[in-house]
């Protein structure tokens, strides 16, 4: 594997270390590279993708994300609508893996927020008017 376990004694700790530092290997698949690799390719193993590149919709995700990443359109990604639609359709087949905001819940929440704001505004008006 990539790890090496070394046991040390108390005496080992009392003397200066003789460990040699090895330069990072840019081709090390375990090395944290970020989303874009030095050569400009997408790092599909980046933890920042949250595993989206694997799973039942991994290929659709890769297709849509690649299209967007390499898009040269004036409105970046505007040429990728079909790929994103395919990805979304796939994700809707697996709601347990890809939870989505329920539109009705969102509408209810925004309506409640509006009602609360309007009640607060009315109360503030009444306070001003009664002084």
UniProtKB/TrEMBL annotation:
InterPro entries noted in UniProt = CHCH, CHCHD4
Q: Which residues form the CHCH domain?
A: 57-93
Predominant localisation class:
mitochondrion
- Location(s) in or outside the cell: Mitochondrion intermembrane space
* Annotated keywords: Disulfide bond, Mitochondrion, Oxidoreductase, Protein transport, Redox-active center, Translocation, Transport
Which Pfam families does the entry mention?
CHCH (PF06747)
GO CC annotations, alphabetized: mitochondrial intermembrane space
- Composition bias, Acidic residues: 22-31
Q: What GO biological process terms does the UniProt entry carry, in alphabetical order? A: mitochondrial respiratory chain complex assembly; protein import into mitochondrial intermembrane space
Q: Where is this region: Disordered?
A: 12-32, 95-131
The UniProt entry, under PROSITE patterns, shows:
CHCH (PS51808)
- Annotated GO MF terms: protein-disulfide reductase activity
Task: Determine if Protein transport is one of this entry's keywords.
Answer: yes
Respond yes or no to whether keyword Glycoprotein is given for this record. no
* Compositional bias ranges of the Basic and acidic residues kind: 106-115
Q: What is this protein called?
A: Mitochondrial intermembrane space import and assembly protein 40
């Amino acid at each position: 594997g990539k790890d090496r376990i070394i046991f040390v004694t108390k005496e080992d700790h009392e003397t200066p270390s003789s460990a040699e530092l090895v330069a990072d290997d840019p081709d090390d698949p375990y090395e944290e590279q970020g989303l874009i690799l030095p050569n400009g390719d997408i790092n599909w193993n980046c933890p920042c993708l949250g595993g989206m590149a694997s799973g039942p919709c991994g290929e659709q995700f890769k297709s849509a994300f690649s299209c967007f990443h390499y898009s040269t359109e004036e409105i970046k990604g505007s040429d990728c609508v079909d790929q994103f639609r395919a990805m979304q359709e796939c994700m809707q087949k697996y709601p347990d893996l890809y939870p989505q905001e329920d539109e009705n819940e969102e509408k209810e929440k925004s309506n409640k927020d509006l009602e609360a704001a309007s009640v607060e505004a009315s109360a503030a008006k009444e306070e001003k008017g009664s002084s």
